Amino acid sequence: MTWRTTPGVSRAVRNPESWWGMRGTIEPDKMLAPLDREAQYWVMRFAAGEATSADLDSLKHWAARSPAHAQAFTRATRLWETVGQAAEPWMIDQAALPARAEKAARVHRPPGRRAFLAGAMSMAAAGAYVAVQPPLGVWPSLAELAADWRTDTGEQRRIVVADHISIDMNTQTSVAVRSKIAQAHGIELIAGEASISTTGATSSFTVIAGDGRISAGQARFNVRYDGTAVSVSCLEGQVSIARPDTVRTLPAQRQILYSHQGFRPATSIDPEMVTAWQNGLLIFQAMPLAQAIDEINRYRRGRIILMNAELGRRLFNARFRIENVDGVVDQIQQIFGARVTSLPGGIVLLS
Predict the structure, then answer these.
(1) Cβ neighbours of residue 105 closer than 8 Å, sequence gap 6 or more
(2) Backbone angle region of 294, left / alpha / beta, with phi > 0 → left and psi within -120 to 50 → alpha
(3) Is residue 8 one of the residues assigned to a domain?
(4) What is the spatial distance between Cα 151 and Cα 171, in angstroms, rounded to a whole number?
């Protein structure tokens, strides 16, 4: 099977070796300027949802001290896009950092999970990655970095297979080629979302996602994997989903979710909603704002951080083009009367 990328649709693929090509012993934290260390502590504190109004005022004052301060904060937020998001689930549960970032940067602490995160961010800044499976998912996994194809934040691309099979990759998606899977050709969806069309195929095609295998002859289906659960939506034809000791058949216009805990009941879908991203659209219908913001963050650089739990429970209805994703902040402000604070690096605080 010959794989090719549609001209004009995708960008060049990163060489995975470039992510961890440095060898030898380094102390990356010592390679960082003091402003970069301080900026990293600020980013971790706000991303963990631990910041107070006083912290916000302090951060704005800190970032406004000089262009160098603002640039350091921008660099730190970009590192957070690559390193920090994977660590967010456990960061939220951690105790607050000291309010003064300068003091936090000088205090000696025994190595812990937060210290490990800071070290990981420093290593990323130094241009080096440890080529092992990262504990707690603190940085992109070795599997993601070694994927055959990856899309960046906001990027989409199409991969075409010679025998009439195409794969549309959504934002922040990693895919690896699996040339032979149980006598069928296929891929592994390491992370993210992909839509697969096999309507002209003459042989079966398989997608590995989590602990399941999705197989189809002539069909069109969408698969999304967030590292915990897999969502499979059949748009045309039918697909077969095999997990350890269990096999399910999914007909057209039905969706099923599975995880290590098993299958959830299948539900009906609106194909327009499932494939909206392929048409350059994001559509939200009565979705809790917190969930909508998580989805929006997949498409924009920087991060929208919700600082009000009650606001996050409000239901959000909106339809807009992905290319105009930054405009959603204005919509949220107008609809809910939210307070918006914009910081360097694309960080937006909603309260």
Answers:
(1) 34, 37, 38, 41
(2) alpha
(3) no
(4) 6
The predicted structure's pLDDT at residue 65: 87
The average confidence (pLDDT) of the chain is: 75
* Positive or negative: CA dihedral 68, 70, 74, 80: positive
Pair (22, 140) in one structural domain: yes
Residue written as token pair 């040339």: 179
Tell me: pLDDT of 299 over 60: yes
- Supply φ then ψ for residue 218, to 5 degrees: -110, 105
Q: Provide, rounded to the nearest whole percent, the portion of the chain with pLDDT above 70.
A: 67
Smallest CA-to-CA distance from 263 within 237, 245, 251 is with: 245
pLDDT of residue 68: 85
In a domain, 93, yes or no: yes
* CA 38 – CA 90 distance, rounded (Å): 21
- Choosing from 94, 113, 144, the residue where a domain stops is 144
Residues for the chain: how many in total?
A: 351
Percentage helix, strand, coil for the chain under 3-state DSSP, each rounded to 5: 35, 30, 35
| Separation between Cα atoms, residue 351 and residue 209, nearest integer Å | 36
- Assess whether pLDDT exceeds 90 at residue 229: yes
Q: Yes or no: say if 16 and 147 are a contact pair by the CB < 8 Å rule.
A: yes
Tokens of 21: 């090509």
Quick one: which H or E segment has residue 71?
Answer: helix 67-79
pLDDT at 298 over 60: yes
Q: In which domain, by residue range, is 168 found? A: 149-274
Same domain, 114 and 196: no
More confident: 173 or 127: 173
